[in-house]
Amino acid sequence: MTLSLEIAPRVARVSGKGQRWAEARTGGLLALPAALYFLVFWLVPFVSAVYLSFTSYDLAGTPEWTGLANYRRMLADPGFWNSAKVTAVYTVASVVPSIVLGLALAVPLSKPGRYNAFLRALIMIPAAMPLVASSMTWSVIFADKGLANTLIGLAGAEPKPWLTDEGLALWALVIMTTWKHLGLFVIILTAGLQGLPPAVFEAAALDGAGPVRIFSRITLPLLRRTLLFVLVIAVVGAMQSFVPAFLLTKGGPAGATEVLPLYLWATGFTFERMGYASAIAMVLLVAMLALSLAQFRVLRGGDDA
Amino acid sequence: MKVVLTLVVAVMLLPVYAMIAVSSASDANDLGGLTFDVSQLGAHVAQLFGQGGFPLYLRNSLVLALGVAVLEVILSGAAGYALAQLRFPGSRALFAVIVGTLSLSPIVVLVPMYLVVKALGWIDTFQGMIVPFMMSAFGVFLVRQFALALPRELLLSARVDGAGELRIFARIGVPLLRPALLTLFLLQFLAQWDSLLWPLIVANDPGLWPLPVGLSQLQTEYDFSIGLVSTAALITAVPPLALMFLLQRYYVAGLTLGGLRK
Hints:
The complex is a heterodimer. By secondary structure, chain A is mostly helical. Helices cover 73% and strands 1% of the residues of chain A. Chain A has helices at 8-13, 17-52, 69-75, 78-109, 114-123, 125-128, 131-141, 147-154, 169-194, 198-206, 211-222, 224-240, 243-249, 260-270, 274-300; strands at residues 55-56, 64-65. In chain A, strand 1 and strand 2 form a beta hairpin. The longest helix of chain A is centred in the first third of the chain and has 36 residues, at 17-52. Chain A starts with 7 loop residues before the first helix and ends in a 5-residue tail after the last helix. Chain B has a single domain (53-259), classed as MetI-like (MetI-like fold, Orthogonal Bundle), CATH 1.10.3720.10. Chain B contains 14 helices and no strands. Chain B starts with a helix and ends with a helix. Chains A and B meet through helix 1, helix 2, helix 4, helix 5 and helix 6 of A and helix 1, helix 3, helix 4, helix 5 and helix 8 of B. Chain B: It is found in: Cell membrane.
């Protein structure tokens, strides 16, 4: 009766076989669907994807082991290299501005106040809109007589074929993606900023540090964890992005917007080269993991923050 | 500062307004104009709902998004609670698999996942669209994090009082986990409402197409005016936006979770 609450659970756990059996039975029961699900829909597919990437398989018959043939073929495949390049450009060009702008907006918007809360709610609207609805909206905006050309017309520029010009189409996707993600990053960064200890900022202000110094020496280092999270979801999200390229440009013109997921999908499901598509998936996975790890390394700066 | 921020937000909302304006445009050429005509918007809505395709896509999307979200809450909720609060054989292995899966993207397992669904005979079925996404590593992980923080004294006293483990889960665990479960419901509903790639692969039958697939087809049909397509996009945007505003607290909590928690 006088057991402290700290050790009581442990005592209760070891108190009897009946209790342990009841726990195991209920735990097993509650977790069984999850065990089956992750086995059938993730573990088996993942192992199969690794295996298939070393085979040739077109859905008819059985997969035929071809060793490294898919990977060798990838090295010599201009379609793959084009997609890899498009994905790299798309990722860097959409992630950098959305994080920089996101941080620039989050710092003032994180200050308390009704009006700021109102603006934060509004800025979320693009992020909360379905990606499909956003993509269709932007396909109308980028149309010949759409809003984009009306606006640059007001500035005195000639209308541009945004989605059908090889040099412009990818940038149209970048603009749309930045617009779509900005609000999300603002909200995450705002929450991170609001979670920082105010005492540190008060002390710095008392010591006479200016806003720039406070931002670079205090805000940024303290916000590292949140920045890392935003960076990882932004990069991994951009590398997996399929819908905007599919809906706005179908990968065209001339492959200018053929991002890797689109190339993978076409390889597997239009041309039914399942083995080759799996090899592309493996390369994409390794690239995503490597980039995530590199970001952890860089932003952690060696310590265990 | 206030003016600059307001201006930035206004620019960000311009495309949303453009969508509404174009939905109400009668002339397909009038895309840059920002005038608004309620009666034309009404006509577009009536035309969309009068057609075979659109109401069907809407229904399919509701079935898909609600099906996945409800199953996710039940199954990930149960598994997350079990992994946090109960000891059972294989729990470590299961947790290891789930953590490993966190870094896997559907695009990586797209081909073999299709082969699994095909082997199950689920091509062109709702279960083929729903079951492969009815749980998520993120969901189990999120619930587990919440469940780890449940007050142990409360669960213990229920045990001392002789409540069965299942009863403790249902009567104490579930109510206390409600914020996590609501967050999960919302995030999964939104994710599935947007799902294009997977239905594109497993649903060849237009009768099963959810909105994203249906709309991507509408866009290319020649008899569809841009105003009508914009109206369809607008209607598609309403349920997620309404849900977000209703459950904003949870939405933001879910989005910011990964950045704030250890």
